[in-house]
């Protein structure tokens, strides 16, 4: 009962923090981390010890899955070279640089465990990248690259961590090339195979599930089932979840009914909101636990922390500029994808926030090395924690200002609206042709009403190309129809209260009116 009470308290605090962040115009992840740091100093507040297995198996899979579901596969494929350069190349580069820096400052500590620390702090966090990048309003391609990087880089880092830890605790003091190759092959290849199998199995189940509630429940099961299957064969659960999410998300319009898609989308919005808030709050709450057993002199602690932070920060920029521009020296690459302006690698470099995966990986470091040899494990956990807090708070909080200062070329809303209107014109033509083919025998009033509906959707698409100086016909329709819906609701409520209709009639009427109002609000937001 006490543990359940603490979970409810944490969720309530995370919800309050997110609401406060919206009211103050701040980024919720940063505010929640700071709030967690402050609460960790209160002696009466529950002390939280984060379980790395809970994070890596219980929290990360659903967050990765919903992020992959919403990722555009064509956009992901188009930016695959950039994504892999960051998610694989940059993670390995950062891990080796950080490992080397730590080994130089702690020469008595084996390089293998220093490399493990490098793998821990190397990957930017999937949750932080998605939450911050979308909130800041970065250009679409930059968001795609950051999200794609964050979907894959955890797998790279965790595989490297597994190899480095195996080398650190091996009785012979190292591992062979064959072991490394086998680990990489099993982790990535096995993860891809399990992910593809997940697409086939759960895609089939979604396609043959007609009940929206069952579809929703099945969607929640998918990321955990895929992770457990991957872990069973020692493959990468991260890769498996991402592959399954990308595959099912790409085919979602063919796999689920409209009711299922609406319910699943609303369900995952709630799950992501709660888990993201809980994750960032829990990161901040670890401060008391992390600093409790530190016994290094303050000067040395400050120096090694600053060195690791500098290595993490600088390696991203050192890697990004050559990775962005050297490839464009190849004429074929340059023709297909011209070199972006300097603002692009700068903002990508600044968006390297770390998160809960880094902390979970640090807490999973071994207690001792080969032969029971000790090493400064608590110091390594502190370094990982410092990287999370500084990158998330400092870089995350300043990212909006940096984006504004760089004056990034924004996505052209006119071009987006023009493309949408053109496609809507084609869709409306297809709808009219289908209606004409099936209209025989239908009441003329019904046919005319449907033709008017198609025309109004076409008009709405073209209206978005106009300016915002005057109220468009669709906006006037939405405003007036909203007032009519409110009046209808009041009549139904009064009838229920007076006993003229049962509760079931009210529920059905409200459901229909709520669906129509949701559509009106969605069209207004667009």
Automatic annotation (TrEMBL):
This is Na+/H+ antiporter. Na(+)/H(+) antiporter that extrudes sodium in exchange for external protons. It is found in: Cell membrane. The keyword Protein transport does not apply. Keywords: Antiport, Cell membrane, Ion transport, Membrane, Sodium, Sodium transport, Transmembrane, Transmembrane helix, Transport. It holds the Pfam family Na_H_Exchanger. Residues 12-403 form the Cation/H+ exchanger transmembrane domain.
């Amino acid at each position: 009962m006490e543990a359940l009470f603490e979970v409810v308290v944490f969720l309530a605090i995370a919800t309050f923090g997110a609401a406060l962040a919206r009211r103050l115009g701040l980024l919720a992840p940063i505010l929640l981390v700071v709030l967690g740091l402050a609460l960790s100093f209160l002696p009466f507040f529950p002390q939280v010890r984060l379980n790395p297995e809970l994070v890596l198996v219980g929290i990360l899979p659903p967050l990765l899955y919903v992020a992959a579901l919403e990722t555009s596969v064509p956009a992901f494929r188009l930016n695959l070279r950039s994504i892999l350069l960051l998610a694989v190349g940059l993670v390995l580069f950062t891990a080796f640089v950080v490992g080397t820096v730590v080994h130089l400052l702690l020469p008595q500590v084996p390089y293998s465990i220093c490399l493990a620390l490098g793998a821990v702090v190397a990957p930017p966090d999937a949750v932080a990248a998605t939450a911050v990048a979308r909130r800041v309003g970065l250009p679409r391609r930059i968001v795609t690259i950051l999200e794609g990087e964050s979907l894959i880089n955890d797998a790279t880092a965790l595989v490297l961590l597994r190899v480095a830890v195996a080398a650190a605790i091996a009785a012979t003091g190292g591992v062979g090339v064959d072991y490394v190759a086998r680990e990489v092959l099993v982790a990535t290849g096995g993860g891809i195979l399990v992910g593809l199998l997940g697409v086939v199995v759960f895609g089939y189940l979604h396609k043959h599930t007609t009940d929206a509630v069952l579809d929703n429940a099945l969607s929640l099961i998918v990321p955990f089932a895929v992770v457990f299957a991957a872990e069973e064969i020692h493959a990468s659960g991260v890769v498996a979840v991402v592959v399954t999410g990308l595959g099912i998300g790409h085919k979602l319009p063919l796999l689920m009914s409209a009711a299922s898609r609406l319910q699943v989308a609303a369900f995952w919005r709630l799950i992501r909101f709660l888990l993201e808030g809980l994750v960032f709050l829990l990161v901040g709450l670890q401060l008391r636990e992390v600093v409790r057993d530190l016994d290094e002199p303050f000067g040395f602690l400050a120096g090694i922390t600053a060195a690791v932070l500098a290595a993490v920060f600088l390696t991203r920029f050192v890697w990004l500029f050559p990775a962005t521009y050297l490839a464009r020296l190849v004429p074929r690459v340059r023709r297909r994808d011209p070199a972006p302006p300097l603002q692009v690698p700068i903002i990508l470099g600044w968006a390297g926030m770390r998160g809960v995966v880094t902390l979970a990986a640090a807490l999973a470091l071994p207690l001792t090395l080969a032969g029971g040899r000790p090493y400064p494990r608590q110091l390594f956990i502190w370094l990982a924690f410092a990287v999370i807090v500084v990158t998330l708070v400092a870089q995350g909080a300043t990212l909006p200002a940096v984006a504004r200062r760089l004056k990034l070329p924004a996505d052209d809303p006119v071009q987006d609206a023009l493309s949408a209107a053109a496609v809507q014109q084609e869709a409306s033509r297809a709808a009219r042709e289908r209606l004409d083919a099936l209209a025989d025998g239908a009441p003329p009033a019904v046919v005319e009403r449907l033709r008017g509906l198609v025309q109004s959707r076409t008009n709405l698409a073209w209206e978005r190309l106009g300016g915002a100086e005057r109220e468009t016909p669709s906006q006037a329709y939405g405003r007036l129809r909203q007032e009519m819906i409110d009046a209808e609701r009041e009549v139904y409520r009064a009838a229920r209260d007076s006993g003229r209709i049962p509760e079931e009639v009210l529920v059905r009427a409200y459901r229909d009116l709520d669906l129509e109002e949701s559509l009106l609000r969605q069209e207004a937001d667009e």
